Amino acid sequence: MADDQITDFPGKDIDVHFDKSLCIGVAECGRASGDLFQKGRSPWCMPDASTPAEAREIVERCPSGALSYTDKVGGTAEQVPAENCVTVVSDGPLYATGDLHIEGAPEDKPGLKTRAALCRCGQSKNKPFCDNSHRDSNFRDYGAVGDSGPGLESAGGPLELKPIEHGPLLAKGNFKIRAASGRIAWAGEKVALCRCGASENKPFCDGKHREIGW
User: Fold this and answer.
1) What's the rounded Cα separation, in Å, for the pair 181 and 105?
2) Element housing 59 (H / E)
3) Residues sharing a CB contact under 8 Å with residue 27, sequence separation 6 or more, in sequence order
4) Containing H/E element for 55?
5) pLDDT (tens digit, 9 = 90+) per residue, 91-137?
6) Other CB atoms closer than 10 Å to residue 3's CB: what's the count?
7) Which residues are CB-neighbours of 138 under 8 A, at least 6 positions away?
8) How does pLDDT run across 76-85, given as a tens digit for each residue?
9) What is the pTM of this model?
10) For the CA atoms of 201, 205, 210, 211, what is the dihedral angle to 10 degrees?
């Protein structure tokens, strides 16, 4: 991969790729048991220190899409989840998982096809993706979801995520929204999600972006 934000860690059977521009330091990789990732080691990631199956499983834990892999021996590629889900993180971003089609997402960031952390505080300098600006901006929202949605007749399929200029994130497809408490709270096929951080009906847009001139 040519992007200077991307570091490739080659292995015999599998290569791991790390995209610094998407990382928000959740540490699902660094805290994983085993020797694939070791803080303070050079290189930090050693694909040959684990089995390919272990490497795939750990990489797929990354909620932001910063980690991805290339299987070199015909092993299992990352599978699209059977269901699309958007999880509201307390005082943080939206985690989207599924068959993601994010408008404007670069093709050289393959992790974003199934996993993404999306800004909902309105302050990220890497919109529509989270860059941890919610911490510096003291964004506060515990991630409760009040509306249950119209429901679903089927599951899976593409989830289209379209950031509207100066406006919300339009989500279209079969998907569910998980509250920060862990509860599956909403199900439906289309909704506008707040990106400015000011909605009084988070995670849904209520038009507040217009009032605050976002």
Assistant:
1) 29
2) helix 52-59
3) none
4) helix 52-59
5) 999 999 999 999 999 988 999 999 999 999 999 999 999 999 999 99
6) 13
7) none
8) 789 999 999 9
9) 0.95
10) 0
